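Posting this for the archive.
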Amino acid sequence: MRKDLEVRLRRLRTSVDVDELLDLGCDLADAGRQSDAEWCFRRAADLGEPVAFFNLGNALAAQDRLEEAVVAYEQALAGGEPDAWRNLGRVLESLGDLAGAMRAYQGAAVAGDLQGGLQLAFLLQEQGEAEPALEVAEMLAAAGDQEAAAVVACWRWCATRDRALEPALRAGADHFPSARGDLAQLLRDSGRPVEARFVLERGAKRGDAEVWLPLGNLYNEEMGDVEAAEEAFRSGISAGDFYCHHNLGVLLADRGDVEGAVEQFMFGAAAGDPMAASALREFDRG
């Protein structure tokens, strides 16, 4: 594969075939050769292909050259490439330009990119704009986006704990991992821990990182299986859920492993979990 890419790259050094340049650029990007991919996309862009600016933005973003990526995405949009809206929003969000990111996500939604519109809903939610976020998600759900419908069910459950949301959470479980966790909590609240366990274990088999924390809690609180709970929390940490550090720390503290508990609280606090930070302060005072 490497040899083939080198041969194609040498052959296309003076090419004016936009399609071949784009194909090679995409293959180079897939191989992790972003700088060579950048060259291909720049040449295709110089030849007047708007989609090349979109791919160029992706290659620049992959190299953490975010300001340059913004320029490339804006050039793609000026050339009539609407797919650039969502990626422009992501880059602007990473740069801390939240107002610009919201405008970009709105542009994506207007262009018919439901995923871009959902990013707008998430950003609004993160900024504490719960009602506008829900309105956007409801609009996308009405347009047929199943992930958006699952998001709406989750947000309504978190706000109301309305058990009538069970069908919506069930429908959304395979489209939005948090819906599975919320469904499991609803099942626990309504006295069905065995079914809750089944729901969460299914999510674990699917690779949903979000299920490990509630699954560990269920093992510990409903079944009294401390070893299974510890394994679940550690699996959650490995999957990137830093909130599991706190719950693992509590479990270790209850078992008398103070050193291990403090270590987990430190990890959680460093990752930004306020509960872990609070537990760490309690140990420091003690």
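Residues 253 and 261 are 5 Å apart (CA to CA). The longest helix spans residues 146-160.
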